[in-house]
Amino acid sequence: MDNDRTNEIELVIITGMSGAGKTVAMQSFEDLGFYCIDNLPPELLPMFIELMTKSDHQMRRIAAVMDTRGGVLFETLVGSIDRVAQLENVTTQILFLEADDETLVRRYKESRRSHPLATHGLPLEGIRKEREALTELKGHARYIFDTSQLKPRALREKIATEFSVKGKAPFAVHFMSFGFKHGMPIDADVVFDVRFLPNPFYIEELRSKTGMDDEVAQYVLKWNDTKVLIDKLTDLFRFLIPQYKNEGKSQAVIAFGCTGGQHRSVTLANYFNQLFEEEFETYVTHRDIEKRKK
User: Are strands 61-65 and 9-16 parallel, antiparallel or unpaired?
Assistant: First the structure.
């Protein structure tokens, strides 16, 4: 899949049987950097894509979930796809998700939801109607994934293999610094409290600086406790980070907290970001560095 043509729009239509995994699929495409739209009316698809081709917006990889929830509007989908295919600089692919009747019925019972086409609330009735309605669209699909025996993680991996730029799911490590007095980060996978390390705040000439300044970083890193901590965390991260990646996560967020998020946590977040930047795609965020007490 050629992604060097920066002006070309890559459109993936996600469709198929209700209960076959379209929600998981959309989340997977979001992780791959696609701009995702759920339940877009088919008549609006050509207008939306044509607008994107004429704009300077960076949305060049688009995934749209379109299914029988659209009712009678869904009948226009094949025609809408044909209209999009006539646009210049647009490549369109259809991902069709299916599963056998037994699996779909079981999933509906587990979720306690009703099938959108089940007139009297019986899942099997709706499943059979939907399967018939999707016959033509399935025939246009380039990719047909049967999820009957697929766990969500396996479906994510399958999508990543087919649709990511390099054939593998992107993975990044985010190192974060924060101050406990400003609250715990809610998006961290692991949090390390480094308030036991010597605090530059009590050194008058360092108080107004942050861990971004060499003087502060050198002060934090010179202590034996800091060196021991770094050695132990380095071993832990070399074990832990690949486990997150193998689990299918798109990122691992590792946070360091000190009192105010100015000195010690900033220093360690920077240190580990630099240490691992050649092994993984890494980012560093200093959440509270601008919250210096006036």
Answer: parallel
Give kind and range of the element (H or E) at residue 105: helix 101-111
pLDDT per 10-residue tile (average), the chain, 294 residues: 58 90 91 87 86 74 81 70 82 90 83 65 78 83 89 87 66 91 88 96 93 96 97 96 80 93 96 93 88 60
Q: Residue 145 — φ and ψ, nearest 5°?
A: -110, 120
234-238, long-range: CB within 8 Å, 24+ apart, which pairs? 234/272, 234/275, 237/272, 237/276
In angstroms, the CA 272 to CA 184 distance is: 20
Q: Which two tokens stand for residue 59?
A: 């949305």
Identify the H or E element spanning 77: helix 77-85
Do 93 and 142 contact (CB within 8 A), yes or no? yes
Q: What is the pLDDT of residue 167?
A: 46
Where do the DSSP E strands lie in the chain? 9-16, 35-38, 61-65, 90-98, 143-146, 172-179, 190-193, 251-258, 281-286
Q: Token pair 């306690």 is at which residue?
A: 112
